[in-house]
Amino acid sequence: MNGKSKKAAIFGLMIALAFVLSYLESLIPFNFGVPGIRLGLANSVVLSALYIMPKKDAFLISIIRIILAGLTFNGVSAMLFSLAGGLFSFAVMAVCQKSKKFSVIGVSAAGGIAHNAGQLAAAAVAAQTAGLMYYIPVLIISGAVTGVLTGTAADIVIKRIKKEK
To answer: For the whole model, what pTM was predicted?
Structure first.
């Protein structure tokens, strides 16, 4: 298999894995009474891609996964909130990763918090109210906790992949 074919295969597998994890997450009844809290299983794939692939490929995996999952499982409005969270999360994770001051788990926790902040900002704009900001403490805590969980999974994957090379 040549370099371009291998890259395309890995790219496709990463999108498929992220999509499947999004589907599995949609089956998990995970409700803490606050809209928007999710485990973020697919983010472990995006985070892994951020460390083992060019940033633009990791970004495309994130966007394609959000669009596919949104259109398949969540609907267009939820997809738009997810895009807002995903774009902000990716930007924060890319900056944190590039700084080399954060572990994979730290980058993931920052991304989890940023994802929730991006979604909350989009919801506040859509609802035309700042009243939603009272969710901030809960979403910061949930973003950090879920970020640590998905970051731990991604850290294991990244170490294995780098060990194989």
So the answer is: 0.89
